[in-house]
Amino acid sequence: MEPGLRARKKQATRAALQAAALRLALERGPGNVRVEDIAEAAGVSPRTYNNYFSSREQAIVAGITADRAEQVAAAVVGSPAATGLGDAVVTAVVGLYADPGDRPRAAMLMVATSPALRACYADTVTSIEGPLAEAIAERCPGVDPLTAQVLSAAVGAAARVGLRQWLRPATGAGGLVVTSGSLPDLVRAALLPLAPALDAAAGR
Amino acid sequence: MEPGLRARKKQATRAALQAAALRLALERGPGNVRVEDIAEAAGVSPRTYNNYFSSREQAIVAGITADRAEQVAAAVVGSPAATGLGDAVVTAVVGLYADPGDRPRAAMLMVATSPALRACYADTVTSIEGPLAEAIAERCPGVDPLTAQVLSAAVGAAARVGLRQWLRPATGAGGLVVTSGSLPDLVRAALLPLAPALDAAAGR
DNA sequence: ACGCAAAATTGCGCGCACGCAATATTTTGC
DNA sequence: GCAAAATATTGCGTGCGCGCAATTTTGCGT
């Protein structure tokens, strides 16, 4: 059964809201954009905005991190069967942060600047946990569903730590090493300590 | 240097706010308590409330989960040196959820009922991550600080999953096993998959 | 004891999130 | 096609979170 007019229109307005939010935030700065503005730009009532997104920042970051979840899940189930679960997951997640061009880079800079956006952006990794858990369960039919959930939640948490580390504005004083490498490397480093747990669960 | 009058008074009003919030929430139900009420009960301005807590629910849950963080950290560094890091951490965290009496149980029931409180309660485990990371670093001087952070974040995430599982209102339909055991057992089960990662990091 | 600087409290105003009920639009069944 | 059921959009009202500036309280040196 195809989506139907209703669902398609819903997706359309959602996309319009995301696009409008991102555009306005980029050209005015995130602090100078009210929900009213976004709603107007998308041709919809302010109240309707909050039917789609439950915070002002959500639409902006949603415009950046569109379909992370499906990406990771697909990468995990699609990785060669020979590789261990740890490698598969780490590679899949790191793949999300390979630099994809120029427009996104400006967006990331904006995210790094605004604390509210940082927080919201970190929260988006939560959205991958569900699909990732399913992917793990599918790849390793033997594991307890709860274990799969736990592992994916742990992966999410680790990714958040890596993210946080990357967009830390350089604390200055006490920090011994402030040089944060490239994002993918940082995320990989953050995920690595979890590999033993993943492999142990996979190996039963 | 002892706290000084200033800091002590601050702690006093914070405690008063927590107590008032918890009391009012228990006797009226969490939905029927406005910030204004809590502030008034604590003899302070509504604006001041938000100088101490940044959400309406925070004061309530703070009244329940007082000094979790120090507890866990102490338990980790204080556990016998012979036990592996995995066992030490698991035991320490599980120890937080040993049933401590009757008043807390009523409070937990209230938390389980209100979605907003559930979310806020889950967020509180985040507060243990910092101290836990320090404790891990102290116990195993060899490990990378980033690794310590990652592991404690993962532990927090796992604990959240256990919590969520426990206070799930029984989805009914598709759930094969809805019988959730006791909270401590559930949390232990959730933490167990991470033990390999902890031990691996500790053993270098 | 006194006054001054630091810090906490307070009032004010703005925008946001959301429940609720009314309204408009789409889908379904005939 | 068309009425009815299902679902989406909107306006309104309430409470919340917080930046800002004025005011009060606290701590300390002399």
From TrEMBL, chains A, B:
DNA-binding region(s), residue ranges: 34-53
SUPFAM superfamilies assigned to the protein according to its UniProt record, in alphabetical order: Homeodomain-like
Pfam families: TetR_C_14, TetR_N
PROSITE patterns membership: HTH_TETR_2
Keyword DNA-binding among record annotations: yes
Keyword list, A-Z: DNA-binding, Transcription, Transcription regulation
InterPro entries xref list: Homeodomain-like_sf, HTH-type_TetR-like_transc_reg, HTH_TetR, MftR_C
Domain HTH tetR-type: 11-71
Keyword Repeat: no
Protein name in UniProt: TetR/AcrR family transcriptional regulator
Species this protein is from: Paractinoplanes globisporus
